[in-house]
Specification:
Layout: E1 2-12, H1 31-41, E2 47-56, E3 62-70, H2 76-85, H3 95-98, E4 99-120, H4 130-143, E5 160-163, E6 177-193, E7 199-213, E8 216-218
Antiparallel strand pairs: 1-4, 1-5, 2-4, 2-8, 3-4, 6-7, 7-8
Amino acid sequence: MSIKLEVWGDYACFTRPELKTERYSYDVMTPGAAVGILEAIFWHPGLHYQIDRIHVLNAIQFAGVRRNEVKSKIGCSGVKTIIKKEAFGGLYLNTKTDIVQRASTVLKNVRYVIEAHFDIGPEANDTDNSGKFQDILKRRARKGQCYHQPYFGVREFPAHFRLLEGEVPDSEYKGREKDLGLMLHHMEYSSRKLKDGTVVYDASPTFFRAILSDGVLDLSESEVLR
């Protein structure tokens, strides 16, 4: 079962992990970001999206902006300490003291078509099936329904969407090939238990060699590098 979703917006930032202090976006949307948009429209624990192709319709354009961010974050260890001491008043960030202004190089005037299919996982119920999930996803996309506003990399850059039921529009890169280099594919999450019984969660990035051919980033034939 597959779906085609057209998404667009004024700005986008798919941050390169090696340049996250001063954010610098990849040239195009990452597969992980595409999955995030689909999950914002319809999510189910037994539904696992697989991105097949990302069509880049508009020309790739960059813009420099400055954004206010917080320089600190509430760590897991701090949360556990506060829970043990039952002193919940200290669990907060003061934006007046933690705020910092950072430069970002972002994309502007983006428009993509996401082609994806999904697999049914063991978390699905006996009454769940591919046809049911596809009907729900398409119905929600047609009506513009979502659990939360989809966004392009950061929440300040909302993504508009519509179900594409016809042909994919022509790309600005039709008849051209562009090597985008190594690109983040997705994060793989795992957990392990220590001798003292503590569960530790790990996240490992996976990458792929991104080639934009005729305006299409074909992920069905790309090799994922770990």
